[in-house]
């Protein structure tokens, strides 16, 4: 028997960042049941309220907090206040992130790099570190990465770098938390049908329905798997790409390739 199985997860709240839409909202729906306490984090109050309404219809208790995950101090205040009033956190899902095109060679894209990496990587660390003091033994941390973090991608240097950082950060965190008996799961999805991928102007093979993807994620989370790639087709392709020599990998990409828009209003995909 796995000593860290879901059946042994302690009683406590489920905290999800980026919970207003997409994967965060879908995972919240997967875990909704009578009496389950949630804390939903996100930037858009109206979107959070809509998700909260769905969870309450399933019998869950829900609290909301509007916050930008780049604001470490605000996250620490929210975590401290929530734990003081409602007790420990059993499951923390760090999901908030943005995706926007970027060109590594353009100085004017420095602001995009700062925005993407500070949200996707630092924002994950700020979210996790704020709540870690309130996670008991056998609790679980989940971070949402991406297959984009496995190799460099044209037109997505900032996003790919941020997700590569997420994978290594979560592995490091797993090692650091062994003594506390807190497990860490990294989920690296391929293309999921969410508002974030709606702007992609290129083909998205094996595009998954977000609720179906969330159900698969929940099964992996409950089994406390360390690293998960989905769907399975993307897992196989990713394995091949990771071991492919660089000179072959570079030949896969045309010199001109459609990428996510670089314009500033692309940040509308942010949670």
UniProtKB/TrEMBL annotation:
<keyword id="KW-1133">Transmembrane helix</keyword>
<protein>
    <submittedName>
        <fullName>SDR family oxidoreductase</fullName>
    </submittedName>
</protein>
<keyword id="KW-0560">Oxidoreductase</keyword>
<dbReference type="InterPro" id="IPR057326">
    <property type="entry name" value="KR_dom"/>
</dbReference>
<dbReference type="InterPro" id="IPR036291">
    <property type="entry name" value="NAD(P)-bd_dom_sf"/>
</dbReference>
<keyword id="KW-0812">Transmembrane</keyword>
<feature type="transmembrane region" description="Helical">
    <location>
        <begin position="227"/>
        <end position="249"/>
    </location>
</feature>
<dbReference type="GO" id="GO:0016491">
    <property type="term" value="F:oxidoreductase activity"/>
</dbReference>
<dbReference type="InterPro" id="IPR020904">
    <property type="entry name" value="Sc_DH/Rdtase_CS"/>
</dbReference>
<feature type="domain" description="Ketoreductase">
    <location>
        <begin position="12"/>
        <end position="195"/>
    </location>
</feature>
<dbReference type="Pfam" id="PF00106">
    <property type="entry name" value="adh_short"/>
</dbReference>
<keyword id="KW-0472">Membrane</keyword>
<dbReference type="GO" id="GO:0016020">
    <property type="term" value="C:membrane"/>
</dbReference>
<comment type="similarity">
    <text>Belongs to the short-chain dehydrogenases/reductases (SDR) family.</text>
</comment>
<dbReference type="InterPro" id="IPR002347">
    <property type="entry name" value="SDR_fam"/>
</dbReference>
